[in-house]
Each structure stands twice: as C-alpha cells, then as structure tokens.
Amino acid sequence: MSSSGPLFVAQEALCLYEISTIYNSCPRYLFYALLIASCVTRWTGWLADVFLGAAATYAGTAAIEAFILVASPQSKPEPAPVTIPFISYNTTLLNDFPQLITETTQVMIQPASLEMDGDAVLAIVVTGYLVFLPLQCWSRILTHQRARNVLFYLWNLLMLAGSICALVNATRKSNTPTQYMFCYPGLPPYDQTYSDGWQSSWRTSTWNESVWETFSNITRWNLLGDICFNPCLNSTQALRQSTSLESWVASKDSELANPNKFWNKLVYSRRYIYSLIVLCLVLNLVHLTFKFLPYRSRIPSARIVVIWKERKNIWNSFKEELKNARSKAEEQSEYKEAGLSSHVKISLWGRLRPFFSLIFLKASMRVSADFAILFGLVFSMIISPFTIIAFVAWAEWTIYNDGPAQESPRQVGQWSYLVSIGLLLISAAILTLKYRLATISELDEEIGNLRDGLERLEQRKEERLRSETAP
C-alpha cells in the first residue's frame, strides 16, 4: 500500500447463520415427497398414515421453531456512525472489493445477522398448511372419523400459527440493516469468514474508535484472527451458537452483489405469492363451510368427480327452483289478485315485480349460495395445487439465493432422514402382516383382546345412547 492510500476500506457484507442441517435440501425435498405420497396413497390406510405422520412431525418441528424465532427477536444496538477514508467511485480497488463503499466518508454501524433457517421454516410450514387443509377438505378416507377430524383441525391450527409466525419473521428479515466489514486495501477478504468468538477488548467506547484503533495498531489487528474487522460477528440469534455465525463477501456476478436489487425483486414477487396463498385459504375455508355447516346444499358431494357426473342435475335444480319461485311470485302478485282483465296492459313494474318478491329473492339467495359453494369447490381444487407448486418454487428459489447448503447429500446428516423413513415403512409393512405371521396362540390372544374391546365399545355405545335420549 502506498503512503498516500487509505488506511482501510469499507465494503458491504452479509452476516448470517447458514440453514441448519435438519432444513437442508435433502430433508426438505424428502418432506415434499412425503406430502405427495400422502395425497397419492390416501386410500391405502397404513401407508398414507406413515407418509402423513412423518411429514406432519417434520412440519411440526418447523412450526415450533417459527414460534421461537418470533418470540425471541434479535436485539440490535443503536446505530452508530463510523468515519471512513474517502474513496473515488472509479478506484481500482473495486476489482478486489466488489461491494466497496465509495464517495462518502461515513457509514452507519448496527451489528445484526440473518437467520437463514427462517426461509426454510417458512417453506415447510406454509407448504404443510397448503397441503393439510385441502386434505381435510377433500379426503373422506383420512377424515371419516371424528378423532381424525379433530386431529386434522389441531394440526391445521398448528400449521396456521406456524405460518403466521414464519411470515412475521420473514418481514423482520427484510428489515435487517446493512452490514459492513473493514479491511486493509492491500488484503482482500476471504469469501467466507467464520466467527471464532468475540473479544470484548476489540470494542472500545464507540465503533468509530474501535475501527480506527484496530487499523492504526498492527498488533491489535493481528489479534482479530481474520483479515477484516466484522462488527456483525458479535450479534447472536436464538437457538444458535455464536461460533457458527459467518460473514460473506458478495461477488460481482451474484444476486447478492446488489442487495437492494435482490431484496426489491424478492419483495415484488412476494406480493403475488402471498395473495395466492390468501386466495387458496379463502377457497378452502369455503370448502370446509360446505362440509361442516348444517346448510343443505344441492351440491351432491365435495368430490369433483361426483360434481362432474351430476352437473346436469345440478344445473336443472338451479333452474327449477328459480322457475318455481317465479311462478309462485306471479300467482301472488297484485295484478293477478285484483283479477285484471286480459285486455288491460300490464306495466313494466308489474312484469318485474315477481323478481323482487320475497319468495323469488329467497330462492335466488339459495341458488347463489349453492353456486358460490360450487365455484369455491371447483376453483379450490384447481388453485390449491397451483398455489402449492408456485409457493414451493418461489421458496426454493429464495433458499437457493441464500447460498450453498451447509452439508452435501453424501453426509449422514442429510441421508439419515431418508433411511429413517425407509426403516419406518419396513416396520409398518411387517406389522400389517402380523396376523399371517402369528402363531395359533398369538391369534387366540388377539381374538380375546378383540372380544374384550368389542364389549367395552358396546357398553360405551349404550351409555352414549342413554345420555342422548335422557330428558
């Protein structure tokens, strides 16, 4: 470095905690595969239970982390100014420092870090909710028992709460202040720097004094252990060890080389994704309303196949009700009650009056309600899969831009989840064959247990009947 050069330079940096092993690419893709398998095999009983149970527990873990992330936000100190040497915008230092701060003599320091688990948690809980809710609406096999319905309701509430918390956390992430690293001009930083613990002695009364004292004293700079001074490495996150915090340098060709452009693009696309999620939620709630409210609709079923087969009957029933209501309204209209002769010209209001009668309005409201239910059912079956695919693609694109995965698929922390599901499937398959593999004594014991259970169920049924018929 020449004697006339700056003592140090400042450039934008990214301070982050990488995605945890449990949320890396392999477990996430396995989760998506389990959701698909649950939908495809929902009529098989035990197989669907294995797939759905594994997916639900994984999503439940993500929902609980979403609660913790929202309940324990990162504490940020007050921003403080740091004076930096003035550097022209056409400096050659940009070749080594792609995010170099130029044309200014001051930056604001507010140490903070990004929690990349938030993006993965958002992808998991929202995808789980978008799948579990339609399953409760569409699948008669998975919800044919009251206990299963209660379980689905509780799980959907957990996923909804987790989704809300994950969305709140995503909003906080977009408000993370810009981070800076300070380096010697002749020593470009590493692409990634891991925190090995923060020493309180490196921070004096103010950030400005700490930075200038570090680069004015080579002995103090050597104590850093890194080439650059990263104030963000003293920030912490819930559920994380401080030594796993990283500081990244964005390259010229990456999206992160222009953080403002990247975040603007992310927020811009987020509007459409969130709008699609809200629309999907509303339509599925219409579906649940049709399924559980006591309103007697003319829609014969919540299944699209049955609706398609009965489409003509549905349409004819709509027309028939309106026609009958209009006939009754005309019979009760004033000009018929008055016994007007046929040669008297009927006014326009007289012709329109039956359409505004109470009978016709009630029939119109019932037809409109049935049509709204029909529209909600059909459209939800179309929009729900599209929403899931669009959200997963958007979420995975966001996670991809967060940086490379912490572990590769070859490492045990990634493929162990797949092996666990495989062992669970083998165990469940063996248990389905227990009667074929059982000995005679085991069969006798099982028959005795079934008889005892049947007697208890009959007694409970009689108690329930007596309680319901009692005055």
UniProtKB/TrEMBL annotation:
Transmembrane segments: 120-138, 150-171, 272-293, 371-395, 415-433
The entry's keywords: Membrane, Transmembrane, Transmembrane helix
Name the UniProt record assigns to this protein: Uncharacterized protein
